[in-house]
Each structure stands twice: as structure tokens, then as C-alpha cells.
Amino acid sequence: MKITPIIGLEVHVELKTKSKMFCSCSAEHFHVDPNTHTCPTCLGLPGALPVPNKTACEWCIKLGLALGCTPNESSFFERKNYFYPDLAKGYQLTQYEKPFVINGKITVDGQEIRINRAHMEEDTGKSVHIIQNGEELTLIDYNRCGVPLVEIVSEPDITSAQMAKNYLLKIQQIIRYLGISDADIEKGSMRCEPTINLKIEDNNQTFYTPLAEIKNVASLTGVQSAIDFELNRQ
Ligand SMILES: [Zn+2]
Hints:
Blueprint: E1 2-14, H1 54-66, E2 70-71, E3 78-81, E4 91-94, E5 101-108, E6 111-122, E7 126-132, E8 135-141, E9 148-154, H2 161-178, E10 190-202, E11 205-208, E12 212-213, H3 220-233
Antiparallel strand pairs: 1-9, 1-10, 2-5, 3-4, 5-6, 6-9, 7-8, 10-11, 10-12
Helix pairs in contact: 2-3
Bound molecules: zinc ion.
Zinc ion binds at residues 20, 23, 25, 38-39, 41-42, 146.
């Protein structure tokens, strides 16, 4: 019996532009008083009009080129419905049909990993869970809401947890070299969601285990151990 891990990675990277993705609020949200960098646009108030951040669009394309991608000749944003208090307008502006860049590749451990796409979207706010006078409360901070986020989607060409970690290190190195983000996983400016399943070949038959997706892993060693755990489980 031959078992092959099939691992893909979605990587979210917060760009370090001065302003947010669709408004002129400061994109700084670390060590800032809650809800001080907000406006009608990033709070999703009625009548507010989003205007795309030119630098963020250019940086997304720059990153795509560094990942060997091809820019789409035309591109646009779409609404993705999203029912949660940390994004008050009820949808995320993102790209689905025509992302800024497509079809790239990078080499990790001597093996080619294809990049499906890199697209531009906006981050959500932050939920803060506290206990006050014995009561559980959830507070929302909208400073991060609308911060430019690039999502890099790989094809499932990664075959081990170690290779996934090396892929992330390579992506991080490219991003830091371009100077477009801190790409700090521990701080949350780079976040990662692995998809994992197994290809099992037995005699002349091939089986696939159900695909699992692990959300919002917050460290490099966390990515590695989460993938190893899931591979063993499957
Ligand atoms: Zn704003």
C-alpha cells in the first residue's frame, strides 16, 4: 500500500501600507486604542463608498510577480457574504473570478510548488473575549477592519509537514525582501490555513481520505504539528 500526503496552503499576509484597503484610515492596529482608526467606510455605514488603495494593489501584483505568477489583464472585487460582528457591513470585499495574479510557482526542497493565485482582500476586526464582574463579554475592535490582506493559494503539491514549513519560510523571505509586510506569524500579520488529505494506492485501486482544512494557525511550529497530527489521524 502506498500513502501520499496531499497538502495545500492558503496564506494570508497583511500589507504594511499607511492606510487601509478601501478608506483613508491608518492601517496601524497594534498598540493602538480600540476603535480609533475607523470611519464610515470601514464600519460599513450606509452610503459609504469604498475606494481601492493603489499601493496595496501594486504590492499584490509585485508579490505575484515574485512568485512567478502572471497578472490578469483585467481584475475586479467581489462581495463575499460574511455574518459575524467583526465585519460590520456583512460582507468582505475580495477577489474570486479575476484575482490580480494567477499561475505561479516556487521551488522548495528541490520540488516545484505551484501557486494557483494571489488576490487582494480586506481584513476583519478583532473580537476580544473578556470576563467582567463574572460575566462573559465579547468586545469588538474595528481598527484592523479593512486592513489590506493578500491571500496566496498554493496547489496541493506539498507532501510533508516539513515541506509546508519550508514553503512558508520561503514565502516569508520573499515578502520581507519586497518590504511589503512584516509577515510575522506570531504577531498575526501572516496567517496560514493548511488543507490536508491522503492518497492511498492499494493494488490497482486509488482512494482519497476526506479533505480537512485547519483554520488560523498562529505559529510555524504550530503549522508543522497541526499537519502532522492531521496526517496521523487520517
Ligand atoms: Zn476607515
